[in-house]
Amino acid sequence: MKTMILLLVMLTGCCTMAGAQVLISLVFGKKLNTDKLEFGLMVAPGAVSLTGMNGKYKPALDLGLYFNFKVSENLFLHPEAIPKSAFGTKQLPVYATGNANIDTLFGNGYVQKNIKGISLPLLIHYRIKGLLFAELGPQVDWLLKTKDVFKTETNGNPLNYTINTNHSVTHFGIGAVAGLAYKLRKDKGLGIGIRYCFGMTDMIKNVSGSQRSQAWFCTISIPIGAGAAKNTTNTH
Is residue 177 one of the residues assigned to a domain? Predict the structure, then answer.
């Protein structure tokens, strides 16, 4: 066991965060799946935006891990850890950068705001009927990297200019999650769902009004090592 843990630490240091998630799941998945507990990977393609900025939704992809604790036959505690969480918006009006050449070059373009962070949803799953569940709960967000990407075209070719804007965001935020989840079979099998995430914290410091995150995601939950779990009974 000590050798396995040492190998895990060494490999994790050499991998990206997403790769580390998969590695941890593969090593410990069987040990973390029991008749009362499910553990796995969560993949969530979707679209994100910010309120109060006149932008549009932009594509996003969240990658994370989840636990599913069985409280009763109809109630489950469902915490998630999403170290690759996406926020932002696109098609924002350009603004002055302080560089006259850049301002002229991108005057007819637009700005895309890319925000990367870590999200920790703490959800409750409640069985509506059969294998259909409602999900609801708070989410804590830690915003790590923010970039404004100016976009335009010159002679038919795309042209980008990126500005680091970490100083302009509130680095910690609180939000809420609501959605539906459906298991494709009674035991620990693949799950799919749809969820809406809405922020309660003003994320942008240097813009008047309130700019809060909003997002739609299609979720895919993949149990790891569940096939080895014994005495599986109508879990979620």
Answer: yes
